[in-house]
Specification:
about 190 residues; alpha+beta; 5-stranded antiparallel sheet; PEP-CTERM protein-sorting domain-containing protein; 12 strands; single chain
């Protein structure tokens, strides 16, 4: 009986460590799944990264690629899938320039960010602004993604979601069950 209770407590403790986080630029909030907190972010210029502190996780920095003259701002240029204008982290003044050197670098400074999901809005025809993992906990995002056949008006990051510990797999659950059966037969 004691071993079953200990196994149950260990399983609950392992699941409690799994956490999901979200940075929402539309509402300017960060969430750890249970608590939502407001945040502010200044304009992000080349050489001047901005940091957002996520409770329960740590810091996430946003910076513009070194070759860019543009500034990242929280603006309302783009529409979401339901055609509603929404705030997002997007290129701002100086005016939007058709420049392939523009890149946004997002760095997670806490635990390893898993299952990272960027909610990109304002994607026009032919654009492909998908973020690419470039290093441990670092993603690069091309907000312009211009090329032949694209609308070339850019896109914005409406939200970023990620987890820090993977969910328990079915094989782990089978191992716990098998271990419980073995302990039961030994008695």
């Amino acid at each position: 009986m004691k071993s079953k209770i200990l196994t149950l407590i260990a399983s609950v403790a392992a699941s409690a460590m799994a956490s999901a986080f979200t940075i929402d630029f539309n509402n300017l909030t960060v969430s750890d799944g249970t608590t939502t907190t407001a945040f502010t972010i200044s304009n992000v210029e080349a050489g001047s990264p901005q940091t957002v502190t996520v409770p329960g996780y740590g810091d996430v920095t946003f910076q513009v690629g070194p070759a860019s003259d543009d500034v990242l701002v929280v603006g309302s240029t783009y529409r979401n899938d339901s055609d509603t204008i929404q705030q997002s982290l997007e290129l701002g003044p100086p005016e939007f320039v058709d420049d392939s050197s523009e890149v946004v670098i997002v760095t997670f400074l806490g635990l390893e960010a898993l299952s990272v999901d960027f909610d990109i809005i304002g994607v026009g025809s032919g654009e492909n602004p998908n973020p690419v993992r470039t290093a441990f906990n670092e993603y690069q995002y091309d907000p312009n993604s211009n090329g032949s056949g694209t609308s070339g008006d850019g896109a914005g990051i409406a939200a970023i979601s990620w987890t820090t510990v993977p969910e328990p797999s079915s094989s782990l659950l089978v191992m716990i069950g098998a271990g419980t059966l073995l302990l039961r037969r030994r008695r």
